[in-house]
Specification:
By secondary structure, the chain is mainly alpha-helical. The protein is built from 27 helices and two strands. It is 51% helix and 1% strand. Pfam families: RabGAP-TBC.
């Protein structure tokens, strides 16, 4: 008797793991040597490498980009790839926008390897793939892998011939993964993933790209029991209630389990469902933003197929609904339409994680603990790079593994001491102020009236009113700095008093700039009242001696 869960009949996961082997066997007959050899020489491969346009709707859905725009995008991508870590840290939104526009075909393989983190993974494990490739491998997995080789894109020029280089590289990649992850082994859904990678990169790069997708983007999808894919099926069904209530009610009414229609979608990343142009665009965004793109694509297909009542008129049961989901309208899968709808779906990585925790609680309540606990899922290239930050040496053409050796504590202390000493040297110490003696001492006697500066006049007399002294006058005496004029005799023409008994100077008023010149002159006349009339010879000698001084000395004296 079939078991029921959440109102829906449970599904045997042993048959799901084979991904409908009988259906894939029927498809593999299309790629037999007898049929292919009849038209390979007559038909040409399309832009993606499919012979005779075997990939349905690829030519119609492909959007032609003008050559000028394509060259500009290639230049931008080359710049990003040459400075990848800086772009991912500082300008990741720009990287995301360019992935949404589409990666140039010439750089798609290299960009996928950088986005997935396979580049860093390969440089951290130099020689690992060659080591795994040289080992014989587990016979139980080798037989299954050999049976699946001719089923992967039989009309593509890489895999068209049995035993060709494409199938040989695919065998090497899948065998190396079984040795790299012996607990998981091999799952048939891994073959399309590896084949898509091999179409764009060498075998070693494809191997590390497959490792990153299985470990970081879709952890647990290919493990025994497929518990992770069942959990994501419940997440998809819960998110459908918000995106398309009509489709949700229809699937709930007919008790259609999500595992019946979404297994191949998610496990193969839509590589066996969508037209090839749409597959490449979906992978560009998927490797950049993570598994939320896969959920968005599934929600868009369900909404476009079952989102209106008119489309549900002919779906009266489970069988009709499944047939409709297996033959989705090509217009819903067209590249331009699909990309626009994907970007408009309101589902974020936080929504996926929140619903994931809810479904795990429900799983433990109904079924108990999970048998396989995969590593946490990482949503996109930026999260992966933050978990394993690359070094600049890892992004060169010929990288080397750099070992980071911690410096001894003595060097660290020495560096601190050097910084402290530099800081001390940079601080300027205050210098002591030296007292310089004034070379021009103050007058000991009463200042003569003629030495005081005359009051400023608005209309000074012209130079002709002050005639120069006659040539017969006595020459001015020589002066020795400093204070050449301070030792002159007073205007009273009296001899200087002896030094033993100097006369006491009479009090006189100090001249300040703020006082009025007229009041100062009156006060000086009242206190000291020196004689104002000098002989002509002495006055002329005083004027000549003043003229012989420099301007600075005159200013100092005056």
């Amino acid at each position: 008797m079939a078991k029921t869960e959440n109102g829906r009949p449970s599904v045997d996961m042993g048959s799901i793991r084979t991904l409908n082997s009988s259906h894939m066997e029927d498809e593999s007959s299309l790629g037999s040597d007898s049929e292919i050899n009849g038209f390979t020489s007559e038909r040409q491969a399309d832009r993606y490498g499919f012979i005779g346009g075997a990939q349905q709707y690829s030519e119609e859905s492909a959007q032609d980009v003008p050559p000028e725009v394509l060259r500009q995008r290639e230049v931008k991508w080359l710049d990003m790839l040459s400075h990848w870590d800086k772009w991912m840290i500082k300008r990741f939104n720009k990287v995301r926008l360019r992935c949404q526009k589409g990666i140039p075909p010439a750089l798609r393989g290299r960009a996928w390897l950088y986005l997935s983190g396979g580049k860093v993974k390969r440089e951290q494990n130099q020689g690992k793939f060659q080591e795994l490739d040289s080992q014989p491998g587990d016979p139980k997995w080798l037989d299954v892998i050999e049976k699946d080789l001719h089923r992967q894109f039989p009309f593509h020029e890489m895999f068209v011939s049995r035993g060709g280089h494409g199938q040989q590289d695919l065998f090497r990649v899948l065998k190396a993964y079984t040795l790299y992850k012996p607990d998981e082994g091999y799952c048939q859904a891994q073959a399309p993933i590896a084949a898509v990678l091999l179409m764009h990169m060498p075998a070693e790069d494809a191997f590390w790209g497959l490792v990153q997708i299985c470990e970081k983007y879709l952890p647990g999808y290919y493990s025994p029991g497929l518990e992770a894919i069942q959990l994501d099926g419940e997440i998809l069904f819960a998110l459908l209630r918000r995106v398309s209530p009509v489709a949700f009610r229809h699937l709930e009414k007919h008790k259609i389990d999500p595992i019946l229609y979404m297994t191949e979608w998610f496990m193969c990343a839509f590589s066996r469902t969508l037209p090839w142009a749409s597959v490449l665009r979906v992978w560009d965004m998927f490797l950049c933003d993570g598994v939320k793109i896969i959920f968005r694509v599934g929600l868009v297909l369900l909404k476009c197929t079952l989102g209106t009542r008119e489309k549900l008129k002919n779906c009266q049961g489970l069988y009709e609904t499944m047939e409709l989901l297996r033959a989705i309208d090509p217009r819903c899968m067209q590249e331009g339409f699909l990309v626009r709808e994907i970007l408009e779906v309101p589902v974020t990585a936080r929504d996926v994680d929140k619903e994931h925790h809810t479904q795990i609680k429900r799983w433990k309540k109904n079924r108990g603990e999970l048998n396989f606990k995969p590593a946490p899922r990482m949503h996109g290239a930026r999260i992966i790079m933050q978990a394993e930050p690359p070094r600049r040496q890892d992004l060169q053409q010929n990288p080397t593994i750099v070992l980071e050796v911690p410096e001894p504590p003595q060097k660290l202390n020495k560096g601190k001491e050097e910084r402290k000493s530099k800081k001390k040297r940079s601080i300027k110490k205050p210098t002591a102020i030296e007292e310089i003696p004034n070379p021009y001492p103050l007058l000991t006697g009463p200042p003569p009236q003629s030495l005081n500066p005359p009051p400023p006049s608005l209309n000074p007399p012209p130079p002709s009113l002050n005639p120069p002294p006659p040539s017969s006058a006595t020459p001015p005496p020589s002066f020795d700095l400093p204070s050449p004029f301070l030792d002159l005799p007073s205007p009273s023409l009296a001899p200087p008093p002896p030094p033993s008994d100097p006369p006491s100077p009479p009090p006189y008023a100090t001249v300040t700039p703020e006082t009025s010149p007229e009041t100062e002159t009156n006060s000086n006349h009242q206190q000291s009242a020196p004689p104002t009339d000098l002989p002509a010879a002495k006055e002329s000698a005083l004027q000549q001696s003043t003229q012989s001084l420099s301007s600075s000395e005159q200013d100092t004296y005056l």
